[in-house]
Amino acid sequence: MPNSLFRKKSISKIMAEVNAGEGDGHSGHLKKVLGVKDLTFLGIAAVVGAGVFSTIGGAAYNGGPGISLLFVITAVTCGFSALCYAEFASRVPVAGSAYTYSYVTFGELVAWIIGWALILEYAIGNVVVAISWSGYFNNLLVNVFHIHLPDWLLVDPKTANTAFHTASQALASGATLTPDQLKSYQFAVQAYNNAPVLGGWHIFFNLPAFFVVGFITWLTYIGIKESKESANYMVIFKVAVIIFVIIAGAFFVDTNNWKPFMPNGFTGVLKGVSAVFYAYIGFDAISTTAEECKDPQRDIPRGMIYSLIICTVLYILIAMVLTGMEHYDHFMGVSDPLAFVFKHRAPWIEKIVSVSAVVATTSVLLVFQLGQPRIWMTMSRDGLLPKRFQKIHPKYQTPSFATIVSGLMVGTGALFAESELMTNLTSIGTLFAFVLVSGGVLLLPPQTEGTGKFKLPYINGKFLIPLLLALFVYLFRDRFFSSIQHIGEESYQEILFLVFLLIAVILAVLTFIRNYSFIPIMGVLSCLYLMIEIPVVSWECFFAWMGLGLLIYFFYGRRNSVLAAQQG
């Protein structure tokens, strides 16, 4: 049985099937219409969205101007993973992303786990983006068109209930409230009381979020060409707006706001990990479109790296401008930071930002909704999911059934889900995928001449990795000794920190002995570290999702695996 759980797909067999036009054994073909420009635009479309228009506000409040460093750290972390993705994409240019790569290197069980994690990443990620889109869309309706939707159509039940109880307690306490606090609390109570009641329950759901998911699902259903063209136009518009905001905002920067640079220390900066990393996961979606690329072995690596560099530069500049225009502590509870900083300085710019935010988040939805059905399609081809998921529409040449199912899944979540938990779940699923892809590169056979058009640079990590680990332990020595001394009383977060150090020591020793390449090892370690900074409640939900996935695999996937049938 252990052998059957870790049976692997052969790169040579996959490539033979692709070259023969069999597309990994499936019936029906996807349109090859994407070039390097399209892939770069898709990457930017996915990366520049809710992060820059929304979650950067909370990160700025916790980390101050120092969040610009967090963007650098996150970009470097993603850069290690992106190079490993590029190596895989060059050698295994088929749909499936990290799922397919893990099937080649780790075997079927790990491939299933990562595929299941990717389903979580894309589905939950799009729920978050749809909720964010709804907020910006409502702001646009109110501030530009003066249209007011009922409040109970714009928020999930948990957020509404929490806001009502918090507001009720604050108003009943008799505490002195500022005019803004009083207005906010009165609004929360009024919105709750005005909501329709069914069976004693106040009804709340996010209708605009559901509608935008429906529209994007339709767009991805009718074709990759239409999706590509829509994404390209949206990227051009939103990047132009962001550059305009950076230039316009520079005139309002007060350098005194950059002092102190890290008001809450490095710990405060790291509190923004989930929000910032969530903004970067888009380059992963590029690899899911491999079978729709004209030259995937050349263009996918370039598209990933180009989009990552462009987005990092934009994020650092926008972070410095925002924290230069407003003192960091003014961003508490601000969900639309770009509009917020111009509200009293240049209201006409605020309206432009509101329009751009709607476009930006729409483009993110589009790319993620392209990626998820292609993961499901590839898992179905391997027999791990029912055959209907691999169905290609005869006219539109898209994975039609998988697109509809993913749309329903995301749309339902967008109606009722709470945003903050969803953001953390997206980040943990993505980091998990990055860890496996980075580690998987070490297991690939040596590349022969002409195998791929991208080759991961080899940098011997024999001494570099142990030295960097020693530096890390020195910098975090207080946390290490505190965790050891109070191990019985520590939170799960500190236990995770100690587990990370143990894994890091093992990898450092193996790297010293076996001369492992620096880039993939750093990809594994940096992603693992970011994972331990994510709240424990997200880990609990993640393990629950993984448990459900394993049940499905053992009761369905393992028995119906195509590879199992081929190996007799």
**Tally of DSSP helical segments:** 25
Care to count the β-strands? 2
The ordered string of helix (H) and strand (E) elements is HHHHHHHHHEEHHHHHHHHHHHHHHHH
- Name the shape in a single word: globular
User: Low-confidence segments, ≥5 residues, pLDDT <50?
Assistant: 22-27
**Biggest sheet strand line-up:** 1-2
Structural class: mainly alpha
Distance between the ends: 13 Å
**Which percent bin holds the helix content?**
over 70%
Strand fraction: under 5%
Profile the largest sheet. Answer: 2 strands, antiparallel
* Overall pLDDT metric: 81
What does the radius of gyration come to? 24 Å
Can you give keywords for this protein?
568 residues; mainly alpha; 25 helices; globular
Please provide a written account of the structure:
The chain has 568 residues and is an all-alpha fold. The chain has helices spanning 2-5, 11-19, 36-47, 50-63, 67-91, 98-105, 108-143, 157-173, 179-194, 207-222, 224-250, 265-270, 273-278, 283-286, 296-325, 337-342, 347-381, 400-416, 419-441, 464-475, 477-485, 492-514, 518-532, 536-560, 562-566; strands at 197-198, 201-202. A hairpin with a 2-residue loop joins β1 and β2. α7 crosses α24 (536-560) and α19 (419-441) runs antiparallel to α23. The longest helix is centred in the first third of the chain and has 36 residues, at 108-143. The two termini are 13 Å apart.
